[in-house]
């Protein structure tokens, strides 16, 4: 989808896809629903000789790698209309569903359920107060939100007194403040949370310096159509932030560095990594069984002080920038090329079927 001024959010990633695609014999076109006219599309393509983007009118590709961020009813309408009009297109992956529905679906698989923080749908202040009695810390999250927007953390300081901090809908940091239980409802009044937010058990994520952290795992299909763990990296939030998202100012740290800093014992670190990888593969396989063919998943994980692995969130349109930021060039290159290799695998299978 175009941002203001017909800009595209991931244009550098699309350039890399185009360059690597050419090496694999795949011609990459970039377009939005606004570029479509009937069965033709005025698509962007990256000209290697000119080293710049150009446009050409061409047929709509038969295989689409959907990177659209909906962000608003108008964009969602455009995507829905495009999918309905061009229902013969095959997609590398597919959308999943909102955070609350995902929690309900994954709770049905026992091997995954034991890694899920307790979660309920917010229907009123009484839900929040009841959850606060059960858990030392909780998170309030928009069940359709992304990028750390609108997330609030409440942490018990003493009887009936809580520490509140978070980010507003524009991702701006909400100053940390101490509030009494009776003030909570008033503070959150006007956020329109009923049915729009989930309340989630908070996993202790603070490092020794007080900053929160988590891990982003990238699970992708390879050139043979098999799931692989491409990589996993730590994300550390900025000061006074309750989220670690890179878009919100977070920093990327190699997984081994972050785990060793916290646990020191190398056998413990290896055990945690093994648990995380096992969980990542289970999640990918289970969600594919439920939703149908997928291409890649960004899986957000938390490791508590005991070393238990928790599953926080699953994203079907993940970024891979975290690997570039920690200097893992090979992992980043693999993260970029795997969707292309999987696309070539799908093309080859289609050809074999037609023959």
Note the beta-strand portion: 25-35%
Helical segment count? 10
Which architecture of the largest domain would the CATH scheme give at its second level?
Answer: 2-Layer Sandwich
What is the CATH homology-level superfamily of the largest domain? ATP-grasp fold, B domain
Query: Can you tell me the overall shape?
Result: globular
Biggest sheet descriptor: 6 strands, antiparallel
Whole-number radius of gyration? 22 Å
Order of helices and strands: HEEEEHEHHEHEEEEHEEEEHHEEHH
- Strand pairing plus helix content: what structural class? alpha+beta
Question: What name does the CATH topology of the largest domain carry?
Answer: D-amino Acid Aminotransferase, Chain A, domain 1
**Overall tally of domains:** 3
Write the layout of secondary structure elements.
Elements: H1 11-23, E1 36-37, E2 40-47, E3 52-59, E4 63-64, H2 73-85, E5 90-91, H3 99-106, H4 110-113, E6 119-121, H5 125-134, E7 137-142, E8 152-158, E9 161-167, E10 173-180, H6 181-187, E11 197-201, E12 213-221, E13 227-236, E14 251-254, H7 255-263, H8 266-291, E15 296-303, E16 309-315, H9 321-325, H10 329-354
Parallel strand pairs: 4-5
Antiparallel strand pairs: 1-2, 2-3, 6-11, 7-8, 7-11, 8-9, 9-10, 12-13, 12-15, 13-14, 15-16
Please characterize this protein's 3D structure:
The protein has helices at residues 11-23, 73-85, 99-106, 110-113, 125-134, 181-187, 255-263, 266-291, 321-325, 329-354; strands at residues 36-37, 40-47, 52-59, 63-64, 90-91, 119-121, 137-142, 152-158, 161-167, 173-180, 197-201, 213-221, 227-236, 251-254, 296-303, 309-315. It has three domains: 4-91, no CATH class; 119-201; 207-348, 2-Layer Sandwich (D-amino Acid Aminotransferase, Chain A, domain 1). It is of the alpha+beta class and 355 residues long. The strands form four sheets. The chain has a six-stranded antiparallel beta sheet, with helices on both faces. Strands 14-13-12-15-16 form a five-stranded antiparallel beta sheet. It has a three-stranded antiparallel beta sheet with strand order 1-2-3, covered by helices on one side. The chain contains ten helices and 16 strands.
């Amino acid at each position: 989808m175009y941002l203001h001024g017909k800009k595209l959010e991931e244009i550098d990633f699309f350039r890399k896809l185009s360059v690597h695609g050419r090496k694999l014999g795949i011609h990459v076109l970039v377009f939005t629903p606004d570029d479509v006219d009937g069965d033709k599309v005025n698509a962007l393509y990256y000209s290697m000789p000119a080293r710049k983007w150009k446009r050409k009118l061409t047929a709509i590709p038969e295989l689409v790698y959907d990177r659209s961020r909906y962000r608003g009813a108008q964009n969602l309408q455009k995507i829905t209309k495009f999918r309905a009009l061009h229902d013969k297109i095959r997609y590398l992956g597919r959308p999943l569903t909102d955070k609350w529905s995902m929690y309900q679906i994954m709770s049905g698989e026992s091997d995954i359920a034991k890694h899920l923080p307790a979660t309920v749908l917010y229907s009123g202040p009484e839900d929040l107060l009841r959850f606060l009695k059960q858990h030392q810390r909780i998170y309030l999250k928009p069940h359709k939100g992304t990028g750390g927007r609108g997330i609030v953390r409440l942490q018990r300081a003493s009887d009936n007194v809580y520490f509140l901090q978070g980010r507003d809908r524009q991702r701006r940091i909400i100053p940390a403040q101490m509030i009494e239980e009776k003030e909570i409802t008033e503070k959150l009044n006007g956020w329109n949370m009923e049915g729009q937010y989930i309340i989630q058990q908070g996993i202790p994520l603070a490092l020794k310096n007080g900053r929160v952290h988590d891990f982003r795992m990238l699970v992708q299909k390879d050139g043979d159509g098999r799931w692989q763990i491409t990589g996993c990296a730590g994300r550390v939030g900025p000061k006074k932030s309750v989220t670690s998202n890179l878009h919100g100012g977070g920093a990327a740290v190699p997984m081994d560095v972050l785990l060793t800093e916290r646990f020191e014992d190398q056998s413990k670190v290896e055990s945690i990594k093994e648990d995380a990888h096992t969980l990542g593969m289970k999640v990918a396989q289970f969600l594919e069984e439920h939703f149908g063919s997928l291409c890649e998943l960004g899986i957000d994980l938390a490791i508590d002080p005991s070393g238990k692995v928790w599953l926080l969130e699953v994203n079907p349109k993940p970024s891979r920038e975290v690997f570039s930021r920690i200097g893992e060039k090979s992992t980043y290159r693999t993260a970029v090329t795997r969707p292309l290799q999987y696309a070539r695998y799908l093309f080859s299978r289609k050809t074999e079927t037609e023959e």
